[in-house]
Amino acid sequence: MVTKTRKSGTASTGATASASPLSGAIKDSAQQIWLAGLGAFSKAQAEGGKAFETLVKEGLSMQRKTQAVAEERINEATQRMTNMASDIGSKAAGQWDKLENIFEDRVAKALNKLGVPSARDIEALIERIDALSAAVAGDSGKTVKAAAPRKAAAPKSAAKAAPKEAGAKPARKAPARARKAA
């Protein structure tokens, strides 16, 4: 550009006189801008490595902070989910317990309607049999040792015999008599 300005300035002498101080000032200003840019570029090259290292260190620091915050949030979310799962599990266990109790009650009622003696009825019968065995052993002059083996064998045989005789009518009446006697 500068060479074009000179050629046009030599062609007309009147324009050269008025443009010459202005063009010189522009030329000086452009040269100073160019030199400032070159200086900034050389300074950036010299200090660029240091600035780059500083930026890398700051980036690592920022990454560690964000990872720590992210891990904290993940741990919080995990804890919330664990608490929620345990709450749901305990509620479900409570519901299963209720369901189990309802089922057991209904089965017991159905067995009672069919005349099947309950475990309490069988225990009462066993106690009554033991008391009668002791009374018979005392009356007939037998020793208590002779009645003891029957006492141990009575719960096993009574427990096995009870389901077989469940449908018989005397089995129904026996628990009622055992309750009246007790």
Which radius of gyration do the C-alpha atoms yield? 54 Å
In this structure, how is the largest beta sheet organized?
none
What ranges have pLDDT less than 50 throughout 5 or more consecutive residues? Answer: 5-12, 146-182
- Could you give the order of the helices and strands? HHHHH
CA-based shape: rod-shaped
Q: Which structural class do the helices and strands define?
A: mainly alpha
Number of helices: 5
**Arithmetic mean of pLDDT:** 75
Strand content: under 5%
Helix-residue proportion: over 70%
N→C terminal distance: 128 Å
Number of strands: 0
Question: What's the structural domain tally?
Answer: 2
Task: Characterise the protein shown here.
With 182 residues, the protein is mostly helical. It folds into 2 domains: 1-114; 115-182, no CATH class. It has 5 helices and no strands. It has helices at residues 2-11, 13-114, 119-140, 144-164, 169-181. Helix 1 (2-11) runs antiparallel to helix 2. The radius of gyration is 54 Å and the shape is rod-shaped. Mean pLDDT is 75; it is low at 5-12 and 146-182.
